Amino acid sequence: MEYKILSDGGIESRMNIPMRGSADVIVAGGGVAGCAAALEAARHGCSVILFEKSMLLGGLATLGLVNWFVPMDDGKGRQVIFGMAEEFLRLSIKYGYGDVNPGWKNGVYDGKGDPPPRYCSGFSADIFALCLTELLNSAGVELRFDASAADIVTRKENGAVATEGVIIHDKSGFGFYKSKIVVDVTGDADLLYKMGVPTLKRGNYDSYFGKVINMDSIKKALESGNIGNIYRGVSGGHSNLYGHGHPIDMPLFDGTDADDISRYTVSSQIRMLEKLKKDDRLSRDLVQIPGMVNFRATRRLDGDATLRPEDSGIRYDDSIGAICDFDGREYLYEVRYGVLVKTGFDGIITAGRTASGDGYGWDILRVIPPAIITGQAAGLAAAESIKNGNRIWEPDIRKLQSILESEDVKIHNR
Question: Does CATH place domain 19-202+298-406 in 3.50.50.60?
Fold first, then answer.
């Protein structure tokens, strides 16, 4: 690599980046949305490479210790979210702790309780991550760990910006991987932003949670016969979804800014340690801390459509999946295909927490079940675009809906 020192102290570099591989679909990011997209595209005959910058799949659900499948029902005893979200939920508790209330059968709650308990479950974060690795590997997805998506290569085509592939940085250096479709599920819309696709950002509250075990929790686990009861939460910052608990004099954190990420991490870890110092050192142990930044939402697509809180109850002809409000009851939504794409930018699609949602609508989209549903739709849209030659923002929406319905995805709430 050749460098030239610039007058402002920076450098100008020139690199020859080798082509290291190719695939029909490249998935940048191995959170649950990325896993769903990769799996769906592979199941529809595409060659798929998934790049994950850490060493575990699952994203915030596993590395971030947000190991909770939030409610997938309408709050009145009727399941709303099915498809790959249901498949992943069942996988998450197949070999580890966690379960859905036994009153839930075939998508309906027939037990006691008013209001009925929600359709949700905790799970073992690490065991679920291992299960995702096995699932994707068995489906033929090429998994590349410790590999960050550094940049995206584009071309001009028919008045649009189109993708050529992705530049990856891993232990072997920089490498170019060619693809027909890129799924940006980095969680921060990194490739969308670098491609010039319109994006929007928001700040994050002070939230950092880990897990401890102590003598009381061990006793509870032994008495209950359930190892899931062994964990207790410990925080370095404990703001909730709505900002309650955020220090009044603390600026919000920008999840796309390297300085803010380091400021957040150092501050959170020191404050967590200060809490632990108050305990008898032989009475407890810190067994898990987040392996990734615990930000809820950082940067997302400004898409052809945007999910907003006031969209509850509206039926959309271009829906690719019915979802629900995880924090409230009876608020039902339909995710429009346009929240995943932007007209004028071909060969790139997103899902999960970088899908286009406004305000609380962003939060509704980013949690585990909707992230999986949008990931499944993105993977299918990628496969169909390759098969049919349509631009990514111009799918045969009826065909997508028909295929998704055949895969047990509920398209409309009514």
Answer: yes
